Amino acid sequence: MRLEIRDHGQPLTPAESRAVLELAARAETEDGSAPLSEQFRLSVESRDTDVTHLLSYAAGSALVGYAQARSASGDEPASAELVVSPEARHQGVGTALLTGLPGAARVWSHATGRAAAAAAAFARARRLHPVRALHVMGRSLVDGPPWPPATVPDRYAVRHFETGRDEDAWVEVNAAAFAAHPEQGSLTRRDLEQRMAQPWWNPEGLILIVEADDPDTIAAFHWTKVDPPDGPTGEVYVVGVSPGRQGEGLGRAVTILGLDHLRARGLRDVVLYVDEDNAAAVHTYAALGFTDREVHRQYSRAST
Q: Per CATH, is 139-298 categorized as 3.40.630.30?
């Protein structure tokens, strides 16, 4: 087995990127859950300078494992994700990738079902312990408890995101709304444009509550997502409220506007991701009929 490392400023080649995504697809087929989250997948193909790529090759030069570490953000340590090809498991590939990661990096597991139990056992055997939980919640858009109409105060108006107009304002309000969030709050305009280049991007799905007398000032937003674009399930991708406008019910209102939008598109189901320690958001979503479906966990070495 051979381990190659592409450090900061050394992006993967197009051929390497394709091999990594193909490996991740095989693992997803085997396990029933995607091993790499969205930002990590995007960084496989981008030239991001704040990531390290680790590639594990078998004797025959076939790619059998991949890991990625992202640099620390603010007070948060580096984060990482890894995946091993189904046919190469229990051969030390995962351990080698873990050993090659920066020592303080915390490793995400997005496994579900039986794969989650295997991931937890892998972590315990290597003295990793869970430090963060990300809940996947969902609800039907056609059945279940109804949600109330959205109530937006008169000083505000509702419109959709406009390409070429709202990019910088959205990045600014997103950074302010998620200043304490290790991933979401660090998104740059380049990160936004990466997502706008994806097949699922739809500006009408990014709903803005703006000042009625200053429609370029974003007070709150709900970015909905449908991936694949012709699929039956939508996502509450990001909901944010400007810190100076919190406490006015805008988060609940813009969430409901997004649910209305997804239902109007003919979708039948909706999911979202929320940190376990974000009690206010969990309460809001539960009150709107969302329930737990999965839990993803982040692990840390015993010394961090």
A: yes
